[in-house]
TrEMBL record:
Cofactors named for this entry: heme b
Record GO terms (molecular function): ferrochelatase activity; heme binding; metal ion binding; peroxidase activity
Note accompanying the cofactor annotation: Binds 1 heme b (iron(II)-protoporphyrin IX) group non-covalently per subunit.
Source species of the chain: Cohnella terricola
PANTHER family: DEFERROCHELATASE, DEFERROCHELATASE/PEROXIDASE
Predominant cellular place of this UniProt entry's protein: other
EC number: 1.11.1.-
Name this polypeptide is given: Deferrochelatase
Domain Dyp-type peroxidase N-terminal stretches: 65-220
Catalyzed reactions: heme b + 2 H(+) = protoporphyrin IX + Fe(2+)
GO CC terms in record: cell envelope; cytosol
Entry annotated with the keyword Protein transport: no
Keyword vocabulary terms for this entry: Heme, Iron, Lyase, Metal-binding, Oxidoreductase, Peroxidase, Signal
Amino acid sequence: MERDNKQDGMSRRDFLKITASVGVGLAIGASGMAAVGKALSPAQPAAAGAEDEKNERIALYGEHQPGIVTPQQTYMYLASFKITAADKLAVIRLFRDWTKFADLSMAGGTMRTGDNPLLPPSDTGETLDLPASRLTVTFGFGPTFFRLDGQDRFGIASKQPQFLKDIPRMPRERLDPLLSGGDVCVQVCAEDQQVAFHAVRNFIRLSTGSATVNWLQEGFISGGSGGQTPRNLFGFKDGTANSLHQTPDGYRDVVWAGADEPDWMQGGTYMAYRKVRMLLEVWDRSSLADQEDTFGRYKESGAAYGKKDEFDHADPSTMPVGAHVRLAKESKQLIHRRGFSYTDGVDPRTGNVNAGLLFVSFQRNPEEQFIPMLKLMQSKDALNEYAMHIASGMFACPGGLREGQYIGQNILES
Ligand SMILES: C=CC1=C(C)c2cc3[nH]c(cc4nc(cc5[nH]c(cc1n2)c(C)c5CCC(=O)O)C(CCC(=O)O)=C4C)c(C)c3C=C
Ligand SMILES: [Fe+2]
Protein backbone atom coordinates (compact mmCIF):
# COMPACT_ATOMS: atom_id res chain seq x y z
CA MET A 1 0.00 0.00 0.00
CA GLU A 2 1.23 3.45 -0.83
CA ARG A 3 2.50 5.41 2.17
CA ASP A 4 1.22 8.72 3.30
CA ASN A 5 4.70 9.52 4.62
CA LYS A 6 3.39 10.82 7.89
CA GLN A 7 6.54 9.87 9.76
CA ASP A 8 9.15 10.82 7.22
CA GLY A 9 7.05 13.40 5.41
CA MET A 10 8.33 16.84 4.57
CA SER A 11 6.03 19.79 4.60
CA ARG A 12 6.44 22.79 2.33
CA ARG A 13 7.96 24.49 5.38
CA ASP A 14 10.48 21.64 5.92
CA PHE A 15 11.18 21.73 2.26
CA LEU A 16 11.89 25.42 2.49
CA LYS A 17 14.25 24.95 5.41
CA ILE A 18 16.22 22.31 3.52
CA THR A 19 16.47 24.21 0.28
CA ALA A 20 17.40 27.36 2.17
CA SER A 21 20.06 25.64 4.27
CA VAL A 22 21.86 24.14 1.29
CA GLY A 23 21.47 27.40 -0.58
CA VAL A 24 20.09 25.87 -3.74
CA GLY A 25 16.79 24.93 -5.27
CA LEU A 26 15.87 21.34 -6.05
CA ALA A 27 18.35 19.51 -8.23
CA ILE A 28 16.18 18.98 -11.24
CA GLY A 29 17.75 17.85 -14.51
CA ALA A 30 17.75 19.95 -17.66
CA SER A 31 14.68 19.58 -19.81
CA GLY A 32 13.01 21.27 -22.71
CA MET A 33 11.22 23.48 -20.22
CA ALA A 34 13.68 25.67 -18.35
CA ALA A 35 10.93 26.58 -15.91
CA VAL A 36 10.90 23.09 -14.47
CA GLY A 37 14.65 22.90 -14.43
CA LYS A 38 14.88 25.80 -11.99
CA ALA A 39 13.07 24.95 -8.85
CA LEU A 40 13.40 27.29 -5.93
CA SER A 41 11.95 27.76 -2.51
CA PRO A 42 9.53 30.62 -1.96
CA ALA A 43 10.94 33.99 -0.96
CA GLN A 44 8.55 34.13 2.00
CA PRO A 45 8.69 30.93 4.05
CA ALA A 46 5.42 29.99 5.72
CA ALA A 47 5.06 30.95 9.38
CA ALA A 48 6.19 28.36 11.91
CA GLY A 49 3.54 26.48 13.81
CA ALA A 50 2.32 23.03 14.73
CA GLU A 51 2.23 20.67 11.79
CA ASP A 52 -1.21 19.97 10.61
CA GLU A 53 -2.06 16.66 8.98
CA LYS A 54 -3.71 18.55 6.17
CA ASN A 55 -0.39 20.17 5.27
CA GLU A 56 1.51 16.94 4.87
CA ARG A 57 3.60 15.92 1.94
CA ILE A 58 2.70 12.74 0.07
CA ALA A 59 5.49 11.04 -1.88
CA LEU A 60 5.28 10.78 -5.65
CA TYR A 61 7.56 7.74 -5.71
CA GLY A 62 6.58 4.26 -4.59
CA GLU A 63 5.07 0.99 -5.75
CA HIS A 64 1.80 2.67 -6.73
CA GLN A 65 0.91 6.14 -7.90
CA PRO A 66 -0.47 8.41 -5.20
CA GLY A 67 -4.12 9.48 -5.32
CA ILE A 68 -5.52 5.98 -5.81
CA VAL A 69 -5.74 4.44 -2.36
CA THR A 70 -4.61 7.65 -0.64
CA PRO A 71 -7.30 8.78 1.84
CA GLN A 72 -9.38 11.30 -0.05
CA GLN A 73 -8.40 14.95 0.07
CA THR A 74 -10.99 17.72 0.05
CA TYR A 75 -10.46 19.05 -3.49
CA MET A 76 -9.96 17.40 -6.83
CA TYR A 77 -9.30 18.50 -10.39
CA LEU A 78 -9.56 16.07 -13.24
CA ALA A 79 -7.97 17.22 -16.49
CA SER A 80 -8.08 15.40 -19.80
CA PHE A 81 -5.44 16.15 -22.45
CA LYS A 82 -5.19 15.50 -26.15
CA ILE A 83 -1.60 14.99 -27.30
CA THR A 84 -0.98 17.25 -30.28
CA ALA A 85 2.74 16.51 -30.73
CA ALA A 86 3.31 14.14 -33.62
CA ASP A 87 6.78 13.29 -32.45
CA LYS A 88 7.45 10.79 -29.66
CA LEU A 89 10.41 12.83 -28.37
CA ALA A 90 8.15 15.79 -27.76
CA VAL A 91 5.82 13.53 -25.76
CA ILE A 92 8.77 12.28 -23.74
CA ARG A 93 9.81 15.89 -23.01
CA LEU A 94 6.31 16.73 -21.87
CA PHE A 95 6.06 13.72 -19.58
CA ARG A 96 9.49 14.47 -18.11
CA ASP A 97 8.40 18.04 -17.37
CA TRP A 98 5.12 16.90 -15.88
CA THR A 99 6.87 14.36 -13.66
CA LYS A 100 9.39 16.89 -12.39
CA PHE A 101 6.66 19.37 -11.71
CA ALA A 102 4.53 16.73 -9.93
CA ASP A 103 7.49 15.83 -7.74
CA LEU A 104 8.30 19.44 -6.98
CA SER A 105 4.79 20.58 -6.19
CA MET A 106 3.90 17.49 -4.13
CA ALA A 107 7.02 18.23 -2.06
CA GLY A 108 5.68 21.73 -1.49
CA GLY A 109 8.13 23.50 -3.76
CA THR A 110 7.58 25.98 -6.54
CA MET A 111 9.45 26.98 -9.64
CA ARG A 112 11.31 30.28 -9.74
CA THR A 113 9.13 33.33 -9.89
CA GLY A 114 11.42 36.14 -10.86
CA ASP A 115 14.85 35.48 -12.26
CA ASN A 116 14.37 37.61 -15.37
CA PRO A 117 12.16 40.68 -15.20
CA LEU A 118 11.83 40.68 -18.98
CA LEU A 119 10.22 37.23 -19.05
CA PRO A 120 7.06 35.85 -17.49
CA PRO A 121 7.85 34.23 -14.12
CA SER A 122 8.37 30.47 -14.40
CA ASP A 123 5.93 29.84 -11.60
CA THR A 124 2.49 31.38 -11.45
CA GLY A 125 3.17 32.04 -7.77
CA GLU A 126 -0.13 31.43 -6.03
CA THR A 127 1.23 28.70 -3.75
CA LEU A 128 4.36 30.52 -2.60
CA ASP A 129 3.26 30.66 1.02
CA LEU A 130 1.25 27.47 1.08
CA PRO A 131 2.16 24.05 2.45
CA ALA A 132 2.22 20.82 0.40
CA SER A 133 -1.41 20.28 1.47
CA ARG A 134 -1.40 16.52 0.74
CA LEU A 135 -1.18 17.25 -2.95
CA THR A 136 -1.28 14.16 -5.16
CA VAL A 137 -0.97 13.80 -8.91
CA THR A 138 -2.19 10.65 -10.66
CA PHE A 139 -1.67 10.02 -14.38
CA GLY A 140 -3.75 7.74 -16.59
CA PHE A 141 -3.69 6.95 -20.31
CA GLY A 142 -6.78 6.56 -22.48
CA PRO A 143 -7.21 4.15 -25.41
CA THR A 144 -6.49 6.94 -27.92
CA PHE A 145 -3.01 7.42 -26.48
CA PHE A 146 -2.10 4.03 -27.91
CA ARG A 147 -4.14 4.04 -31.11
CA LEU A 148 -5.97 6.94 -32.75
CA ASP A 149 -8.32 6.27 -35.68
CA GLY A 150 -6.66 2.88 -36.12
CA GLN A 151 -3.17 4.44 -36.27
CA ASP A 152 -0.32 3.44 -33.97
CA ARG A 153 0.69 7.03 -33.18
CA PHE A 154 3.88 6.58 -31.23
CA GLY A 155 4.77 2.94 -31.98
CA ILE A 156 3.20 1.84 -28.70
CA ALA A 157 -0.03 0.14 -29.84
CA SER A 158 1.28 -3.24 -28.68
CA LYS A 159 1.62 -1.81 -25.16
CA GLN A 160 -2.10 -1.14 -24.76
CA PRO A 161 -3.28 -3.10 -21.75
CA GLN A 162 -6.01 -5.68 -22.27
CA PHE A 163 -8.91 -3.91 -20.54
CA LEU A 164 -8.24 -0.39 -21.76
CA LYS A 165 -11.30 0.35 -23.89
CA ASP A 166 -13.94 3.03 -23.84
CA ILE A 167 -16.81 2.19 -21.53
CA PRO A 168 -19.53 0.74 -23.81
CA ARG A 169 -22.66 2.77 -24.52
CA MET A 170 -25.28 2.51 -21.78
CA PRO A 171 -29.06 2.69 -22.20
CA ARG A 172 -29.75 5.69 -20.00
CA GLU A 173 -26.74 7.91 -20.52
CA ARG A 174 -26.60 11.26 -22.32
CA LEU A 175 -22.89 11.67 -22.83
CA ASP A 176 -21.27 14.86 -24.01
CA PRO A 177 -18.35 13.76 -26.21
CA LEU A 178 -16.57 17.05 -25.49
CA LEU A 179 -16.48 16.15 -21.80
CA SER A 180 -15.49 12.50 -22.28
CA GLY A 181 -12.32 10.48 -22.89
CA GLY A 182 -8.88 11.81 -23.74
CA ASP A 183 -5.32 10.63 -24.40
CA VAL A 184 -4.07 11.44 -20.90
CA CYS A 185 -5.97 12.11 -17.71
CA VAL A 186 -4.38 13.88 -14.75
CA GLN A 187 -6.11 13.67 -11.38
CA VAL A 188 -4.89 16.35 -8.96
CA CYS A 189 -6.10 16.28 -5.35
CA ALA A 190 -5.20 18.44 -2.35
CA GLU A 191 -6.51 19.74 0.94
CA ASP A 192 -6.19 23.30 -0.35
CA GLN A 193 -8.05 24.21 -3.53
CA GLN A 194 -5.47 26.79 -4.55
CA VAL A 195 -2.66 24.24 -4.24
CA ALA A 196 -4.62 21.81 -6.43
CA PHE A 197 -5.48 24.49 -8.96
CA HIS A 198 -1.89 25.72 -9.09
CA ALA A 199 -0.76 22.23 -10.03
CA VAL A 200 -3.37 21.68 -12.71
CA ARG A 201 -2.84 25.12 -14.15
CA ASN A 202 0.88 24.54 -14.44
CA PHE A 203 0.37 21.11 -16.02
CA ILE A 204 -1.65 22.92 -18.65
CA ARG A 205 1.05 25.58 -19.02
CA LEU A 206 3.78 22.98 -19.39
CA SER A 207 1.81 21.21 -22.10
CA THR A 208 1.86 24.21 -24.46
CA GLY A 209 2.84 23.07 -27.93
CA SER A 210 2.58 19.35 -27.09
CA ALA A 211 -0.94 18.88 -25.79
CA THR A 212 -4.24 20.69 -25.34
CA VAL A 213 -6.83 20.35 -22.60
CA ASN A 214 -10.05 18.59 -23.64
CA TRP A 215 -11.92 19.19 -20.41
CA LEU A 216 -11.31 20.12 -16.80
CA GLN A 217 -13.55 19.13 -13.89
CA GLU A 218 -13.49 20.45 -10.37
CA GLY A 219 -14.75 18.49 -7.35
CA PHE A 220 -14.92 18.61 -3.58
CA ILE A 221 -15.94 16.49 -0.63
CA SER A 222 -16.28 17.22 3.03
CA GLY A 223 -15.29 15.29 6.07
CA GLY A 224 -13.17 12.76 4.18
CA SER A 225 -9.83 13.71 5.66
CA GLY A 226 -11.28 13.63 9.18
CA GLY A 227 -11.73 9.89 8.74
CA GLN A 228 -15.49 10.19 8.31
CA THR A 229 -17.22 8.99 5.18
CA PRO A 230 -18.07 12.11 3.17
CA ARG A 231 -21.68 12.85 2.27
CA ASN A 232 -22.72 13.39 -1.33
CA LEU A 233 -25.10 16.13 -2.50
CA PHE A 234 -28.10 13.88 -1.76
CA GLY A 235 -26.97 13.97 1.87
CA PHE A 236 -25.95 10.29 2.03
CA LYS A 237 -22.63 8.92 3.20
CA ASP A 238 -20.83 7.85 0.04
CA GLY A 239 -17.85 5.51 0.16
CA THR A 240 -18.81 3.29 3.11
CA ALA A 241 -18.32 0.00 1.26
CA ASN A 242 -14.69 0.83 0.42
CA SER A 243 -14.05 -0.44 3.94
CA LEU A 244 -14.69 -3.97 2.61
CA HIS A 245 -11.33 -4.07 0.81
CA GLN A 246 -9.08 -1.48 2.49
CA THR A 247 -6.23 -3.86 3.35
CA PRO A 248 -3.14 -4.75 1.30
CA ASP A 249 -4.78 -8.07 0.28
CA GLY A 250 -8.04 -6.31 -0.51
CA TYR A 251 -6.29 -3.74 -2.70
CA ARG A 252 -4.43 -6.54 -4.47
CA ASP A 253 -7.70 -8.34 -5.23
CA VAL A 254 -9.74 -5.26 -6.12
CA VAL A 255 -7.45 -2.49 -7.34
CA TRP A 256 -3.98 -3.48 -8.59
CA ALA A 257 -3.60 -4.87 -12.12
CA GLY A 258 -2.80 -8.56 -12.49
CA ALA A 259 0.51 -10.24 -13.30
CA ASP A 260 -0.78 -10.91 -16.83
CA GLU A 261 -0.77 -7.19 -17.61
CA PRO A 262 2.18 -5.39 -19.30
CA ASP A 263 5.21 -4.52 -17.14
CA TRP A 264 4.26 -0.85 -16.96
CA MET A 265 0.86 -1.76 -15.45
CA GLN A 266 2.41 -3.69 -12.54
CA GLY A 267 1.36 -1.73 -9.46
CA GLY A 268 -1.10 0.12 -11.69
CA THR A 269 -4.85 0.07 -12.11
CA TYR A 270 -7.73 1.18 -14.31
CA MET A 271 -9.57 4.40 -13.54
CA ALA A 272 -13.24 4.59 -14.54
CA TYR A 273 -14.80 8.04 -14.70
CA ARG A 274 -18.44 9.07 -15.00
CA LYS A 275 -19.78 12.56 -14.58
CA VAL A 276 -23.22 12.04 -13.11
CA ARG A 277 -25.60 14.94 -12.89
CA MET A 278 -27.82 14.67 -9.81
CA LEU A 279 -31.30 16.13 -10.12
CA LEU A 280 -31.33 17.97 -6.82
CA GLU A 281 -34.75 19.58 -7.28
CA VAL A 282 -36.44 16.20 -7.94
CA TRP A 283 -34.57 14.60 -5.05
CA ASP A 284 -35.42 17.38 -2.61
CA ARG A 285 -39.14 16.87 -3.29
CA SER A 286 -38.99 13.14 -2.54
CA SER A 287 -39.82 11.74 0.89
CA LEU A 288 -37.16 10.50 3.31
CA ALA A 289 -38.53 6.97 2.87
CA ASP A 290 -38.14 7.18 -0.93
CA GLN A 291 -34.64 8.57 -0.54
CA GLU A 292 -33.60 5.76 1.79
CA ASP A 293 -35.27 3.13 -0.44
CA THR A 294 -33.21 4.45 -3.35
CA PHE A 295 -29.98 3.40 -1.67
CA GLY A 296 -31.11 0.73 0.82
CA ARG A 297 -29.33 2.64 3.58
CA TYR A 298 -30.52 5.07 6.25
CA LYS A 299 -29.74 8.68 5.54
CA GLU A 300 -28.52 9.85 8.91
CA SER A 301 -26.47 6.91 10.15
CA GLY A 302 -25.47 5.48 6.76
CA ALA A 303 -26.35 2.01 8.11
CA ALA A 304 -27.73 -0.61 5.71
CA TYR A 305 -31.42 -1.48 6.01
CA GLY A 306 -32.09 -3.51 9.14
CA LYS A 307 -28.75 -2.47 10.69
CA LYS A 308 -27.68 0.13 13.23
CA ASP A 309 -24.21 1.33 12.41
CA GLU A 310 -22.68 2.51 9.16
CA PHE A 311 -20.19 -0.34 8.87
CA ASP A 312 -22.52 -3.17 9.95
CA HIS A 313 -22.69 -5.95 7.37
CA ALA A 314 -25.25 -5.09 4.66
CA ASP A 315 -27.91 -7.68 3.76
CA PRO A 316 -29.25 -6.88 0.27
CA SER A 317 -32.37 -9.02 0.78
CA THR A 318 -33.68 -6.42 3.26
CA MET A 319 -33.47 -3.67 0.63
CA PRO A 320 -36.05 -2.84 -2.04
CA VAL A 321 -35.51 -4.43 -5.45
CA GLY A 322 -33.71 -1.74 -7.45
CA ALA A 323 -32.00 -0.17 -4.43
CA HIS A 324 -28.57 1.10 -5.50
CA VAL A 325 -26.63 -0.86 -2.87
CA ARG A 326 -28.64 -4.03 -3.49
CA LEU A 327 -27.75 -3.90 -7.19
CA ALA A 328 -24.08 -3.31 -6.41
CA LYS A 329 -24.17 -6.40 -4.17
CA GLU A 330 -25.97 -8.43 -6.85
CA SER A 331 -23.13 -7.72 -9.25
CA LYS A 332 -20.90 -9.58 -6.74
CA GLN A 333 -18.04 -7.24 -7.58
CA LEU A 334 -16.01 -4.77 -5.57
CA ILE A 335 -14.50 -1.53 -6.84
CA HIS A 336 -12.56 1.21 -5.07
CA ARG A 337 -14.58 4.42 -5.30
CA ARG A 338 -13.01 7.87 -4.99
CA GLY A 339 -15.70 10.26 -6.16
CA PHE A 340 -16.09 14.00 -5.60
CA SER A 341 -19.14 16.24 -5.74
CA TYR A 342 -19.32 19.07 -8.24
CA THR A 343 -21.43 22.17 -8.66
CA ASP A 344 -21.57 24.19 -11.83
CA GLY A 345 -24.00 27.08 -11.48
CA VAL A 346 -27.53 27.00 -12.74
CA ASP A 347 -29.00 25.74 -15.99
CA PRO A 348 -30.25 29.03 -17.50
CA ARG A 349 -33.02 27.25 -19.45
CA THR A 350 -34.64 25.65 -16.42
CA GLY A 351 -33.28 27.48 -13.39
CA ASN A 352 -32.20 24.10 -12.02
CA VAL A 353 -28.89 23.73 -10.24
CA ASN A 354 -26.15 21.97 -12.18
CA ALA A 355 -24.54 19.63 -9.70
CA GLY A 356 -23.65 16.01 -9.16
CA LEU A 357 -20.94 13.47 -8.70
CA LEU A 358 -17.61 13.09 -10.45
CA PHE A 359 -17.64 9.34 -10.00
CA VAL A 360 -14.14 7.87 -10.04
CA SER A 361 -13.38 4.24 -9.33
CA PHE A 362 -10.23 2.16 -9.52
CA GLN A 363 -10.28 -1.54 -10.33
CA ARG A 364 -7.93 -4.23 -11.63
CA ASN A 365 -10.31 -5.47 -14.33
CA PRO A 366 -13.04 -3.09 -15.49
CA GLU A 367 -14.60 -5.72 -17.76
CA GLU A 368 -15.27 -7.99 -14.82
CA GLN A 369 -15.86 -5.40 -12.10
CA PHE A 370 -17.01 -1.96 -13.20
CA ILE A 371 -18.80 -2.52 -16.52
CA PRO A 372 -21.22 -5.30 -15.46
CA MET A 373 -22.06 -3.27 -12.36
CA LEU A 374 -22.71 -0.16 -14.44
CA LYS A 375 -24.90 -2.13 -16.88
CA LEU A 376 -26.98 -3.52 -14.05
CA MET A 377 -27.38 -0.09 -12.50
CA GLN A 378 -28.23 1.59 -15.77
CA SER A 379 -31.08 -0.84 -16.35
CA LYS A 380 -32.52 -1.26 -12.85
CA ASP A 381 -31.23 1.37 -10.42
CA ALA A 382 -33.82 3.35 -8.46
CA LEU A 383 -31.22 6.14 -8.55
CA ASN A 384 -31.84 6.58 -12.29
CA GLU A 385 -34.93 8.65 -11.47
CA TYR A 386 -32.63 11.23 -9.88
CA ALA A 387 -29.41 11.04 -11.90
CA MET A 388 -28.09 11.21 -15.46
CA HIS A 389 -24.66 10.17 -16.71
CA ILE A 390 -23.26 12.97 -18.87
CA ALA A 391 -19.57 12.15 -19.36
CA SER A 392 -17.36 9.09 -19.36
CA GLY A 393 -13.77 7.90 -19.54
CA MET A 394 -11.52 4.91 -18.94
CA PHE A 395 -7.81 5.35 -18.29
CA ALA A 396 -4.96 2.97 -17.49
CA CYS A 397 -2.88 4.28 -14.60
CA PRO A 398 0.70 2.97 -14.66
CA GLY A 399 2.37 1.58 -11.55
CA GLY A 400 4.31 3.91 -9.27
CA LEU A 401 7.53 5.69 -10.24
CA ARG A 402 11.07 5.20 -9.04
CA GLU A 403 13.11 8.36 -8.53
CA GLY A 404 14.61 9.43 -11.86
CA GLN A 405 11.82 7.84 -13.90
CA TYR A 406 9.18 9.85 -15.71
CA ILE A 407 5.55 8.93 -16.14
CA GLY A 408 4.96 6.71 -19.16
CA GLN A 409 8.67 5.91 -19.56
CA ASN A 410 8.07 2.14 -19.66
CA ILE A 411 5.50 2.64 -22.39
CA LEU A 412 7.45 5.03 -24.57
CA GLU A 413 11.00 3.71 -24.24
CA SER A 414 11.04 -0.07 -23.91
C1 LIG B 1 -21.07 1.62 -11.59
C2 LIG B 1 -20.72 2.02 -10.42
C3 LIG B 1 -21.39 3.06 -9.62
C4 LIG B 1 -21.91 4.28 -10.00
C5 LIG B 1 -21.90 4.90 -11.38
C6 LIG B 1 -22.43 4.91 -8.83
C7 LIG B 1 -23.05 6.15 -8.78
C8 LIG B 1 -23.54 6.76 -7.64
N1 LIG B 1 -23.51 6.28 -6.36
C9 LIG B 1 -24.10 7.16 -5.50
C10 LIG B 1 -24.27 7.04 -4.11
C11 LIG B 1 -23.98 5.89 -3.34
N2 LIG B 1 -23.36 4.77 -3.79
C12 LIG B 1 -23.25 3.87 -2.77
C13 LIG B 1 -22.68 2.62 -2.83
C14 LIG B 1 -22.10 2.06 -3.96
N3 LIG B 1 -22.11 2.55 -5.23
C15 LIG B 1 -21.41 1.72 -6.07
C16 LIG B 1 -21.19 1.86 -7.44
C17 LIG B 1 -21.60 2.95 -8.21
N4 LIG B 1 -22.22 4.08 -7.79
C18 LIG B 1 -20.94 0.63 -5.26
C19 LIG B 1 -20.10 -0.51 -5.75
C20 LIG B 1 -21.38 0.84 -3.96
C21 LIG B 1 -21.10 -0.05 -2.76
C22 LIG B 1 -22.19 -1.03 -2.54
C23 LIG B 1 -21.88 -2.01 -1.45
O1 LIG B 1 -21.17 -2.98 -1.70
O2 LIG B 1 -22.35 -1.81 -0.31
C24 LIG B 1 -23.81 4.44 -1.59
C25 LIG B 1 -23.95 3.77 -0.22
C26 LIG B 1 -22.79 3.97 0.69
C27 LIG B 1 -21.48 3.44 0.18
O3 LIG B 1 -21.12 2.28 0.33
O4 LIG B 1 -20.78 4.24 -0.42
C28 LIG B 1 -24.25 5.71 -1.94
C29 LIG B 1 -24.92 6.73 -1.05
C30 LIG B 1 -24.49 8.28 -6.27
C31 LIG B 1 -25.18 9.50 -5.70
C32 LIG B 1 -24.15 8.03 -7.57
C33 LIG B 1 -24.35 8.85 -8.77
C34 LIG B 1 -24.88 10.03 -8.79
FE1 LIG C 1 -22.91 4.36 -5.81
